Amino acid sequence: SSSASFPVSRTRRISSSSNQPKMPKGRDAKADKAGKDEPSPGDAASSAAASPSPKKPRGVATKRWFVLSTGAVGAIVAVVVAVWAVMPKERVEMELKAAEMKKWLDSTLQPWFNTSSPLPLERRLKDKGIKAKHPVLFVPGLVSSQLEVWNALECFGDDRRWKIWGGVDMFTAVLQNTSCWLEHLTLDEKTGLDPYDGAIKMRAQEGFASVDYFFPGFWVWGKLTEVLGSIGYDPNSLMTMSWDWRPSFDNLEVRDRLLTKMKRRIEDLYEFNGKQKVVLVSHSLGSLLTFFFFQWVTYHHDPKWVDKHIHSWVNIAGALLGVNKSTSCLFSGEMKDLNIFGPVIRYIIDKILPLPDRVRLWRSMGTMRHMIPKGGARVWGHLGEPTFMKFPASPELDLPFDDFVGWANSYLDKAADLNTWLDKDTYVSMPPPDQPLPTFRDASDAIKYWLNPLAAPLPYAPNMKVFCTYGVGIPTERNYLYQKMPATHISNHNQQQPTATDQVLTSDQRLVDLPVQMIPPHQVSGLLANLSSATTSARDAWEWPPLASDPRGKVEVLDSVVVSDGDVSVPLESLGLMCQLWRNTKRYNPSGAAVRVREVYHNISMTQELMRDSKSGNHVDILGNEDILELVARVASGDDPTDERTFSLIQEIAHKVVNNEFT
Question: pTM for this one?
Answer without folding.
Answer: 0.75
